[in-house]
Structures
1.
Amino acid sequence: MKIWASRAVAATFTALALAACSASSTSSTGTGSTGAGGSAAATTGAGGGDPCVTGADCASCTDRVSCFTCNSTAHQPGVTPYNALITCLFCTACYTTCDGATTLGQSGGCTAAPTMTDSCDTGTPGMTACDTCQTCSTKSGATCAADLTACEGNGDCKALLTDLATCPAM
């Protein structure tokens, strides 16, 4: 399962969410995960077991991979539209600036380079150009705009966008 938290997309979504819902970027929706203000210590959940493993409290996860897995479990209905958005961003619109050949987390990168360079995919590859490209490619009418709209229309995908951004750094 491909999961990659995108700072620019999370920021774009957060701005849209703040305007539309007056919500904080650290709040979450879905099945019990918490945002950045959650406990860092693992505790036993109501049904027993590690809440990071069960998806009950993803803020308790101590590493990035566990946090991504936890949020994918907690927000399973949002994984498909989230992956479509991330694939569009890294494998189609921002392949060069975001290093789509290697940056899709655990999956090892995109399966192939796009046949044409997207108009948003400009600048020296790196975090700044990647963030700029992602913001550009999710604007109305841009390459990944429909994927962002589909994700925003799914509560679990929106939760993944915000909650994955709070996972520990690599």
Note: Confidence is low (pLDDT under 50) at residues 1-5, 11-47.
2.
Amino acid sequence: MNNKKLSLFVALALIAGIVAGYLLGAGRPAVSPSVTDQQQKDTSSPASIMIDFGDGSIRVFDSVPSGETLLIALRNATTDSKLTLETKDYKDLGTLITKIGTKTNGENDRYWQYWVNNKSAETGAGAYVIQPNDVIEWKFTPFASN
């Protein structure tokens, strides 16, 4: 398979994964029903965001407030640290992170993906509401990676 066909296949697989994740998550709350409103507003137990650029470079952001979406927190962290953040809005499907720093989706067949507390994301960054003590990892990694 030539590089153009492979890139197209990977892009289509990524979009299919986003659509499937959206469809599987439709109707489910982004926050676990067992989490109380008070816990959602608890900023005394901040979360953290780690960005792994896949080249040995890692940035860590501690004291990330809970109760806001991961997309907003990521925008705040990248703005404060002067990192580039690019996104693409897919209307009803949500917002896809396409670039952080100098790493752009598709580069060397790698894409931005995230995990929360060592579990692969089940919703888009714009729908996930950060909980106290969450450990969020953004990784620039091959799409099939876990």
Note: The first helix runs from residue 3 to 25.
3.
Amino acid sequence: MISAKDIMTDEVIVIYEDMKIREAAHLMLRNRVSGFPVVNKGIGLAGIITMTDLFRIIDQASHDTKEGFQEHINKCKDLPVAQVMTKDVVSIQLDTSLNEIVHLLVTENKHTFPVVDNKRIVGIVSRHDILNAIFAYS
């Protein structure tokens, strides 16, 4: 049985809640990833920031009638990640099966899953990792 530990990316970049949105976006682009777990200095996993969260900002800017598009974007760039991250994180364990992960992806509409072991982030599973496990090696 294939599990999270078999398909996860174990070199996980985590970011802190107080990082600016512009910095998180830059890291996503530079590392060619769609999201990062967000941690705080006290309790660990606090949320996840994904490209979808960034696109919500862009969508809001395109509908903002008080400010122009660019003004809205410029204002948001320096906000802390904590203000736009997804706080409802679905994390998985090392032994979570591939079938369970796919089911979570479909039913929870989540695309990236932090892998935790004893409350510590040890990896991350993305849609890319799942498709790679199913189609690249079967």
Note: The chain has a mean pLDDT of 90.
